[in-house]
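Bumping my old thread because nobody answered last time. Still need a sequence for this structure:
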């Protein structure tokens, strides 16, 4: 789910992986690894990126991702 949250947050702001990497002070490869789930992102780092770097409301973002997951689960059932 952490990977989905980061990707939804980034896309919601229209930010590329490269742009997010620059803002976060890491490589775009690291952002790709977080989003694909190949590398774990800590909760604090994820929350910080979403709130402070991308300027999104944390609970609203979580609800949106949960809603997307519910729709996907309903469609596959």
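Sorry it took so long. Here it is:
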């Amino acid at each position: 789910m952490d990977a989905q949250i980061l990707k939804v947050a980034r896309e919601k702001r229209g930010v590329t992986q490269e742009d997010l990497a620059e803002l976060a002070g890491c490589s775009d490869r690291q952002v790709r690894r977080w989003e694909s789930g190949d590398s774990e992102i800590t909760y604090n780092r994820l929350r910080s990126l979403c709130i402070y770097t991308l300027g999104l409301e944390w609970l609203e973002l979580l609800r949106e991702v949960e809603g997307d997951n519910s729709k996907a689960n309903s469609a596959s059932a």
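Residues 2-68 form a domain with the 434 Repressor (Amino-terminal Domain) fold (CATH 1.10.260.40). Let me know if any region looks off to you.
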